[in-house]
Automatic annotation (TrEMBL):
One of its GO terms (molecular function) is ATP binding. The keyword ATP-binding applies. This is ATP-binding cassette domain-containing protein. Keywords: ATP-binding, Nucleotide-binding. PANTHER family: ABC TRANSPORTER ABCH.1 (PTHR24220:SF86), IMPORT ATP-BINDING PROTEIN (PTHR24220). Transmembrane segments: none annotated. It comes from the Bacteria. Residues 2-210 form the ABC transporter domain. The lineage of its organism: Bacteria, Bacillati, Actinomycetota, Actinomycetes, Streptosporangiales. InterPro entries: AAA+_ATPase, ABC_transporter-like_ATP-bd, ABC_transporter-like_CS, ABC_transpr_LolD-like, P-loop_NTPase.
Amino acid sequence: MIRTEQLTKSFGERTLWRDVDLTVPSGRMLALVGSSGSGKTTLLNCLGLLEQPSSGGIFHGEKNLTRLSAGGRRRFRRTHLGYLFQNYALMDNATITENLDVARRDRRLQAQALERVGLSGRERERVHRMSGGEQQRIALARVIVKRSSLVLADEPTGALDEENGRMVIGTLRQMADEGCAVVVATHNEDVRDACDEVFDVHTQHLAAAV
Ligand SMILES: Nc1ncnc2c1ncn2[C@@H]1O[C@H](COP(=O)(O)OP(=O)(O)OP(=O)(O)O)[C@@H](O)[C@H]1O
C-alpha cells in the first residue's frame, strides 16, 4: 500500500500538482493520466523516492518515506519497489540473464518471466542488440522476477504492438490481483481501462475507471 498526503511538487514558480491525496492499497491499480508535461513521470518518481516532493508526505503503512535518509530510500527501493522506466533502464551491454539477476538470481522465476513476456530461450542475448519493444519486455520481466509489493510503470506499452501491449496490461493487472499496489502513467486507453481508478494529474480529478 502507498498513500500520499497533501503532496505538492513545484519547479521554481511552476507548480505541477498541489495537495495530492492518493491511496493505492494492495491489490489495486491506479492510472495516472493527463496531457504531456502535466507531471505524471514526476509523480511516479516521487512515489519511487527518486525525486523529493516540494511538500507533503508519502506513506508506506505508517512510515513517512519522505523522511528517510538516502540509505533508507535505497533500501526501500531495493526491498519494495519494481519500477518500469520509460527508457527501460537496462544494462545495455549485459545479457538478459545478467539484467534479471539484478532483480533476483532465481533461474526458475526468470524462465517463467521470460516465457510470460515472449522471450524464452534468449537469455544469453545482449540487450543492445534487441529492439525497443523487446527491451521494454525485458524490463517487465525484471519487474516480474523482483516480486515487489509496489510496482510503478511509466508508459509501459509505449514501444509495443497491440498483442504485446495486451500482454503488458494483463501482466500488470495480474500483479495487482496477486496483491501488489500498481501505479501506471499512461496515455493508452486500454491501460487506463484495466485500472481500478484514474487520477488526472492536470485537473487533479480522481475517478473510478469505467
Ligand atoms: N528537474 C526538473 N527541473 C525543472 N523542470 C522539470 C524537471 N523535471 C521535470 N520538469 C518539468 O516538469 C514537467 C512535467 O514533466 P513530466 O515528465 O513529469 O511530465 P509527464 O506528464 O510525464 O509528460 P509526458 O506525458 O510527456 O511523459 C515538464 O514540463 C518538465 O519539463
